[in-house]
Design goal:
With about 290 residues, the protein is of the alpha/beta class. It is built from eight helices and eleven strands. The longest helix is centred in the C-terminal third of the chain and has 16 residues, at about 270-285. The N and C termini lie far apart (about 45 Å).
Length: about 290
């Protein structure tokens, strides 16, 4: 029988097949091959006890992609949620997440929740910070139910990993998106004990046909992973148009003269907050300890 892993915890994997959720263990061959099942994996299972809904995972089907952080497979895009206010958006943390998604070649959208707490001037400032980056920016209010139609359009027909720091209203948005779902979510919630605790593990949540969101644990910091300082500029997409104007081959866009990226910055073509975050991340990578 074929299904999809919606959650893995303490060596158990919860596999959804239609409206049923099977509690599964992975066969030892995966450990031998050093391949661990991940939420989002499509798998084949062998039923052990139909009444108890237990099974073994026998095959992990080929993945379209595999993310390191968060640890999920077969995602189409990422949605990073920040609060527009309360707490104030941490754009450095947001840019770190965007870099990690660029590194893993995953398309990303930015959602600023709690838009009911800010005025249009502040929203325009946030939009301006990500102009020319290629990222779609939207504003929502889980409390007021605002922006949900646009958000649903972005999510429809895709598996989206949703991430953000604690306190930004991620869970409230997810609960809003689940309103009115006809699937037996109560049964699923009981099986995997969803909703009893703060999210500690990545978990697929059914929204509608062919539409899933991957709820991931909140984060307060992100360390760039397996990256050299010379690679960082490749993960700031708005730099690409201006790099040909740099005088020096291999320009780092930090202290060099006649730098096309810095010229674009002064023209207002590149966000100053984005550039400052780039410089901070570049210095971190430059000074990181070598093991």
């Amino acid at each position: 029988m074929r299904g999809r892993i919606i959650r893995g915890i303490a060596g158990f994997y919860y596999v959804q097949t239609g409206n049923q959720i099977y509690e599964c263990k992975a066969k030892g061959i995966f450990r031998k091959d050093k391949k661990k099942p991940l939420p989002g994996d499509y798998v084949e299972i062998d039923i052990l006890d139909e009444a108890a809904l237990t099974a073994n995972i026998s095959v992990i089907l080929p993945r379209t992609n595999e993310l390191i952080r968060p640890a999920v497979a077969n995602v189409d895009q990422a949605l990073v949620i920040m609060a527009a206010a309360s707490p104030a958006p941490n754009l450095n943390l947001l840019d770190r997440f965007l870099v990690t998604m660029e590194q893993q070649k995953v398309e990303c959208c930015i959602c600023f929740n709690k838009q009911d707490l800010v005025d249009e001037e502040w929203k325009d400032k946030l939009r301006e910070s990500y102009r020319n980056t290629g990222y779609r920016v939207l504003f929502t209010s889980a409390r007021q139910g605002e922006g949900l139609e646009e958000l649903c359009q972005i999510l429809t027909g895709k598996t989206t990993t949703v991430a953000g720091p604690s306190g930004v209203g991620k869970s409230s948005l997810i609960n809003r998106l689940q309103t009115g779902i006809s699937m037996e979510t109560g049964e699923i919630s009981t099986k995997i004990e969803r909703g009893k605790h703060t999210t500690r593990h990545s978990e697929l949540i059914y929204v509608s046909e062919d539409t899933y969101i991957v709820d991931t644990p909140g984060f307060s910091s992100i360390e760039l992973y397996r990256m050299e300082k010379e690679e960082l500029q490749d993960y700031f997409p708005e730099f690409a148009d201006w790099e040909p104007e740099c005088r020096f081959t291999g320009c780092a866009h930090v202290k060099e003269r006649d730098c096309g990226v810095k010229t674009a910055l002064e023209r207002g073509e590149i966000s100053r907050s984005r550039y400052e975050n780039y410089c901070q991340l570049y210095e971190e990578l430059k000074n990181k300890r070598k093991y």
